[in-house]
Amino acid sequence: MEVILKQDVKGLGKKGDKVKASDGYARNYLFPKNLAVEANAQTLTEYKNSEASKQHKLEVEIENANKTKRKLDGKTVKLTAKAGANGKLFGSVTSKDVAEQIRLQLGCEVDKRKISMADIKNFGTYSAEVKIYQNISACVSVEVGE
């Protein structure tokens, strides 16, 4: 009997695979535990449609990530901070501050956890990497002034 797996089954296959299983194993184990469905015309069509939908969603996400990368790459974000007499900042500039300024100045929503940069404790220009999606990242300059 041919079945389509709903979840990974050890020794049989991964989720979404169309595999051949014995009738007893399928009826007594896979179907009652909701691990698989019988591979008939309707379930095959549903499976193909869901795979096409997932693929389309992935393509749209990658396209949006590339648009965001083009918006951010090479841009400079200006921040102001208070400092003491010797030019050292009170505290430091965090990724939260940078994410907020990217939102305000460049109009892109960026998660603060996706920004990697060195500790900024003095005035100057620093570089920060913004991870937008898998294998898609943009470099942004962070300029800290008074």
Care to give the gist of this entry?
The chain has 146 residues and is α+β, with helices and mostly antiparallel strands. It has helices at residues 23-30, 41-72, 95-106, and strands at residues 2-5, 18-20, 36-38, 76-80, 88-93, 115-117, 120-122, 124-133, 136-145. The strands form 3 sheets. The chain has a 4-stranded mixed beta sheet with strand order 4-9-8-6. Strands 2-1-3 form a 3-stranded antiparallel beta sheet, covered by helices on one side. A two-stranded antiparallel sheet has the order 5-7.
Structural account:
- The protein has helices at residues 23-30, 41-72, 95-106, and strands at 2-5, 18-20, 36-38, 76-80, 88-93, 115-117, 120-122, 124-133, 136-145.
- It starts with a strand and ends with a strand.
- Helices cover 36% and strands 32% of the residues.
- It is elongated.
- By secondary structure, the protein is an alpha+beta fold.
- The model has no long low-confidence stretch (mean pLDDT 89).
- The protein has three helices and nine strands.
- It has two domains: 2-66, Ribosomal protein L9, N-terminal domain (Ribosomal Protein L9, domain 1, 3-Layer(aba) Sandwich); 68-145, Ribosomal Protein L9, domain 2, CATH 3.10.430.100.
- The longest helix has 32 residues, at 41-72.
- A hairpin with a 2-residue loop joins strand 8 and strand 9 (136-145).
- The strands form three sheets. The chain has a four-stranded mixed sheet with strand order 4-9-8-6. It has a three-stranded antiparallel sheet with strand order 2-1-3, with helices on one face.
